[in-house]
Structures are given as structure tokens and as C-alpha cells.
Amino acid sequence: MSLKVIISGGGTGGHIYPGISLAYELKNRDVENDILFVGTERGLESKLIPREGFKFIKIDAKGIQRKICIENLTAIVIFLISLFQSYKIIKDYKPDVVIGTGGYVSGSVVLMAALWGIPTFIHEQNVIPGITNKFLSHMAKAVFLSFDQSRRYFKKKSTLILTGNPIRFKKLEHINHRDYQKFKLNSLKKTVLVFGGSKGAASINRAVVEGVKLIKDFMKNQWQVLLISGADDYGKIIEIIGKDDNIFSIEPYLYNIEKAYPLADLVICRAGATTLAEISAYGLPAILIPYPYATNNHQEINARILEREGTAVLILEKDLSGERLAKVLLDLLKNKNQLEIMAKKSRGLININSAKKIVDCIFDYIKKI
Fold it and tell me: Fewer CB atoms inside 10 A, N or C side of the chain?
């Protein structure tokens, strides 16, 4: 039995990539399964979804501030408009299932589908759920959780299912020596992979450049750094480092970061849920620097779980400096046994079959109705 499925979520890669993973899993089950993504023009989904070859329709959406302000009046008006747009999409497309993967864009789509009596499901990537998913959880047939610690934030316990966070890759890549050449890396050295998220992070870039400079004599013969700077900061970082540096390889952005993960021995990154799922899938130890302005401080809470499990070292943004990062980095690079233990624990955290588990649950529900 083939299905017509709407997947809605967006704003950041953390809400988009789980949806892409679910879309591929649905297609793997039956190539006739028809997938439609609904998102916004401004979110990353408008670029990422078409690249994957899936159908994409745009609607208007704007997040609501968690305080009383004039912007919320505009957000309410746009939400009402998005409800009408969602109604039209659902009426025309006639989906069998609607899946929300978070972000305010999913609110009107999942709500309208539920009002139509269409089975709806949502996936929460972070420990602390966003306001949209908390609201939608009251009408969803199932709420899929990435972290067991999320249960306390939902009132309707009977619908909660721990699945883990689907990763975007169809398969885990293995080391390809051509990728060393592509990224201008030395295959005889170990690699620190650095990235700040889908848009980069200037503060992490600066701290890494300054920190590596302080321990350059230790690193130069054994370690190298693949730094994904973000397009906005790329030119500045190239200017700071110079062209002849033998430690750094700089890329503005990687659509296929799965090519870089197998080459890495340590990661320095933010603590978005999708990022954490991906580095755990590849069994990578990490230095985590949570984005300090994430809603409900959810990145720090995500990071503290990995720190407690022994797979990561946490540095808060307010404590971040070249000196602080250099100290943490040097301690790890000198301790091969600790890195190996962290890597082993990291591999033990991930459920690489998350997408399969979610789609299994959806199909089980559909078969019963």
C-alpha cells in the first residue's frame, strides 16, 4: 500500500534533516510512496529539500516570541494566513499521513491535518521540546522522542515513543582517500573537524584559530584541522590563517558533511540534536560549544547529556576563548586512550535505525485504521 505523506518542519537543519531521513525511509519501503515537503521561503528547507529531489511547497510562517510584544501580532496574522494555505495544500494533495519535525512552520500544517482527521505524527529532536511540538502533541497520534529525558515535558504520556533522532544519511560513509585529497588533508595525520552549524559560527572559528596557534608546535606533525567556517566568515578566516598554513583546511560549507565525518578523529561543534546524532553515528568524541541563544537553552541541555555519558567535553560560549580551547584540545590530543574511550561511548549512544523505527510505527498505525 503506497502512501501520500506531507512532511513539514524547518528553519534550521536540525528540523529539516530528520524529515529528509524519514522521506528516504518511506521511499525505500515503496518507491510509489509520494512525499511532499511544506516549509518557508526563508528557512534552509527552501534550499535543502529541492537539492534532495523532493517536492516542496512554500507557506508563510513566523515564530511567536515568548514575551508580550508587537511582533506577536504580526505572527498571529501570518499564522492565520498559513492555516488557510495549509488547508488548500491538504485539500489539493489529500495526504494519508502528516509528519511534523518541528519549527513554527509545522504548526499550521499539522494542526490543519489533525482538524481534517488525517493521522498526524511529530518528532522532537531536542531534550526540551519547542513550543510548536508541545502544542501539537495533544493531537498527534504519536510523538517520537530523541531523548528519553523529554518525557517529562509532555502531558500525554501514552503517545510518547523513544526512537532516537533520524540522521540524514542513507548509509554511513567509510574513509575514502580521495576525500583526503578533496579537502586538502594529509591521510597520515589525525583530523579535528570543526563546524558551527548550517551557517557557521564566527566565535568558534576565532577560538579554534587562536587556540591552534597556541599549540601549533604540538599539532603540526600529528594533527590537522578541517574547518567548515560558514560562507559569511570564510573570507575573513582565510585572511587570518593565510594560504600556506599546513594545519588548516578551510571550507565555506559542506552539503555532504558525511564525507568529512569518517576522516575525523575529534569534532568541535555546536550541540544541536541532529549534529549530536550524526557524530554519535560515526562514533566521534567531541568538544561541544552550545549555541547560547537556542530556545530554552536546549543545546546546553543536549550537550550536558553527552558530557554525562562521557562522550564529550563541554565549553560554554561565555567561557570560550583561544586559551580555554587550546587547553581542552591539548589535553585530549595528548590522551589517546581517553579519545578511544569517548569514541566507544559515543557509538553506544545512537540508534542508527531511528528512521526505520518511526516509519514502522506509522505503518503499524495505518494498518489498524
Answer: C
Length of the chain counted residue by residue: 369
Look at residue 69 in the predicted model and tell me its pLDDT: 67
pTM for this entry: 0.84
What would the grid cell of residue 67 be? Answer: 514575551
Answer whether residue 65 shows pLDDT above 70: no
- Do the domains at 4-170+352-368 and 177-347 have one common CATH topology? yes
Q: Which residues pair with 6 in a beta bridge?
A: 36, 98
Sequence letter at residue 331: D
Work out whether the CA dihedral 313, 315, 321, 323 comes out positive or negative: negative
CA atoms lying within 13 Å on the CB side of residue 136:
35
Q: Give percent of the chain with pLDDT exceeding 90.
A: 72
Write b or e for each residue in 162-181: b if 16 or more Cβ atoms lie within 10 A of its Cβ, otherwise e: ebbbbbbbeeebeeeeebbe
Fold of domain 4-170+352-368: Rossmann fold (3.40.50)
Task: Spell out the domain ranges in the chain.
Answer: 4-170+352-368, 177-347
- Placement of cell 489498524 in the chain: 368
Residue ranges with strand state E in 196-300: 223-228, 248-251, 266-269, 286-288
Give per-residue burial for 290-321: e unless 16+ CB within 10 Å, then b.
bbeebeeebbbbbbbbbbeebbbbbbebeebe
Q: 142 forms bridges with which residues in the sheet?
A: 121
| Cα distances (angstroms) measured from residue 320 to each of 199, 312, 325, 338 | 19, 16, 7, 22
**CA atoms of 56 and 180, how far apart (whole Å):** 34
> 27 is written with which cell numbers?
521511499
pLDDT of 121-138, one tens digit each?
A: 999 999 999 889 999 999
* SS3 label, residue 8: strand
**Rg of the chain taking only CA atoms, in angstroms:** 21
Look up the CATH number of domain 177-347: 3.40.50.2000
pLDDT digits (tens, 9 = 90+) for 11-26: 878 889 999 999 999 9
Interatomic CA distance for residues 195 and 356, integer angstroms = 28
